[in-house]
Amino acid sequence: MTTLIPILGDQLSHSLASLRAATPASAVVLMMEVTEEATYVPHHPQKIALFFSAMRHFADELRSLGWTVDYVALDDPANAQDFAGEVSRAAARHAATKIVTVAAGEWRVLDSQQTWADRTGLPVSILDDDRFIFSITSFMAWAKGRKRMTMEDFYRVVRRQTGLLMDGDQPIGGQWNFDQENRKSVPKGHRFTPPVRFAPDAVTSDVMALVAGRFGNHFGSIDGFRWAVTRTQALEALDDFVRHRLAGFGDYQDAMVTGEDVLNHSLLSPALNTGLLLPLEVCQAAQAAYHAGTAPLNAVEGFIRQILGWREYVRGLYWFAGPDYTSRNHLNATRPLPAAYWGAPTGLKCLAEAVDNTRRNSSAHHIQRLMILGNFAMLVGTDPAHVHRWYLAVYADALEWVEAPNVIGMSQFADGGLMSTKPYAAGGAYVNRMSNHCKSCAYDVKQRTGPKACPLNSLYWDFLARHEDALKNNQRLWRMYDGWRRFAPDEQVRIREQAADSMATLA
Ligand code: FAD
Ligand code: DLZ
Question: In angstroms, what CA-CA distances link 326 with 76, 318, 341, 480?
Answer without folding.
Answer: 33, 10, 19, 28
